[in-house]
Amino acid sequence: MASVSGIVTTTSFCILFFISCLLSASSEPLERPPIVDGLSWNFYLTNCPRLERTVTSHLQKVFKQDSGQAPALLRIFFHDCFVQGCDGSILLDGSPNEKDQAANIGIRPEALQTIEDLRSLVHKQCGRVVSCADLVVLAARDAVSLLGGPKFAVPLGRKDGLTFSINGTRNLPPPSFRTGKLLDTFAARNFSATDVVALSGAHTFGRAHCSTFFNRINQTGTPIDPFLAKNLSKTCPTSQSSNTAVLDVRTPNVFDNKYYVNLANSQGLFTSDQDLFSDSRTKGIVNSFASDQKVFFDSFADAVVKLSQLDVLTGKQGQIRAKCSVANTKKEGLVVTSVVEEDMDLRGHI
Ligand code: HEM
Ligand SMILES: *[C@@H]1O[C@H](CO)[C@@H](O)[C@H](O)[C@H]1NC(C)=O
Ligand SMILES: *[C@@H]1O[C@H](CO)[C@@H](O)[C@H](O)[C@H]1NC(C)=O
Ligand SMILES: *[C@@H]1O[C@H](CO)[C@@H](O)[C@H](O)[C@H]1NC(C)=O
Ligand SMILES: *[C@@H]1O[C@H](CO)[C@@H](O)[C@H](O)[C@H]1NC(C)=O
């Protein structure tokens, strides 16, 4: 008897062990930054196993039509996470609301719609089990890899917040910041100088409006390539012009390390970018990323995983929104704001 139950126990242990080994081997890379309680590398494994494939294949189609949505989605992720944590607060409607604040200038509405489209697709497939906050993170991760950047895993399991923060948008660093203030702003959230230089490398694609860099055109503070200044001055007849310039003059639509090569040539668009090459605390890091793309990609992936865990809501905190732009009125269940939303919610539970 003892040996039989011994065999049974050993067998079931082996099966459990084998499955857990398979699971972690398939989705957990060898060395990743630590993750906070409540998040995991395979959070939706049982209740939405095709989540990541669905998101990636939809975004492939979106970026084929409009590659500008990739940088737009990466920026939405940063602005969500840095204000009240990665809680989807930037997606919420309201008057006033978070997304319309000055620091969120240029947030692209079509990219916000893409997050909602992803939610709709995923909820049709799996029910209302995936949060908008997680979709923001997944979309940003895919925006990077689909435009040439690193592929990496992100931990999932965030819940959506019930509120947004208008004041919190003041914590977003302005483009006029020099390196000292930039490092302070990020250090307050436990980001190192390497993290800051790597995250700034997000400006390797996308665009900026005249008002955000106009002060740099004829300034003497941080160096600017005179050819770039001349071009920008043509693009921007006044600071209030609605025109835009590309963030990366070399490869504006690719996620690569050319941003750092630009900085070494005084072709950074913002003061916050260019000063990284003047400040002794960051110049060496810029050089290391400019000369080795893999070093940049690895640091970028680590910093994004860190950013994606700022003040997250997990477990019983928060909710899973039935629509990314509106908080559900009751925390635990039925959406009662409208008949349409109630229908969606019920479908989620079938
Ligand atoms: C380090 C401090 C940062 C400052 C001062 C800053 C500032 C800005 C500003 C002013 C714009 C132009 C928006 C517009 O006019 O439309 C912009 C664009 C952008 N930012 Fe940043 N940013 C910073 C960090 C980050 C981080 C950490 C990320 C993501 C990881 C990011 C991703 C982007 C992207 C991808 C764009 C282009 C958006 C588009 O094309 O729609 N930025 N940033
Ligand atoms: C936002 O900040 C302003 C100025 O710092 C303050 O007067 C106001 O009470 C704050 N509002 C909220 C909702 O915290
Ligand atoms: C700060 O970051 C370091 C290095 O990434 C990490 O080991 C540490 O746990 C973090 N501390 C907090 C309070 O988040
Ligand atoms: C910058 O300076 C140049 C040369 O002095 C001038 O032609 C140009 O209009 C100035 N641009 C801005 C935006 O002030
Ligand atoms: C300035 O514009 C010209 C003409 O579009 C372009 O060939 C050149 O690469 C630009 N230079 C910089 C530094 O932006």
TrEMBL record:
Site residues by UniProt (Transition state stabilizer): R75
Keywords in alphabetical order, please.
Answer: Calcium, Disulfide bond, Glycoprotein, Heme, Hydrogen peroxide, Iron, Metal-binding, Oxidoreductase, Peroxidase, Secreted, Signal
Q: Some GO term, biological process aspect, for this entry: which one? A: hydrogen peroxide catabolic process
InterPro entries from the xrefs?
Answer: Haem_peroxidase, Haem_peroxidase_sf, Peroxidase_pln, Peroxidases_AS, Peroxidases_heam-ligand_BS, Secretory_peroxidase
**Which reaction is the catalytic activity of this chain?**
2 a phenolic donor + H2O2 = 2 a phenolic radical donor + 2 H2O
Q: What is known about what this protein does?
A: Removal of H(2)O(2), oxidation of toxic reductants, biosynthesis and degradation of lignin, suberization, auxin catabolism, response to environmental stresses such as wounding, pathogen attack and oxidative stress. These functions might be dependent on each isozyme/isoform in each plant tissue.
| Key word rRNA processing present | no
Q: Which subcellular locations apply to this protein?
A: Secreted
Residues annotated to bind substrate: P173
- What is the native source organism of this protein? Phaseolus vulgaris (Kidney bean)
Uppermost EC category: oxidoreductase
The identity of this protein, by name, is Peroxidase
Which residues hold Ca(2+) 1? D80, V83, G85, D87, S89, E98
The catalytic site is made up of H79
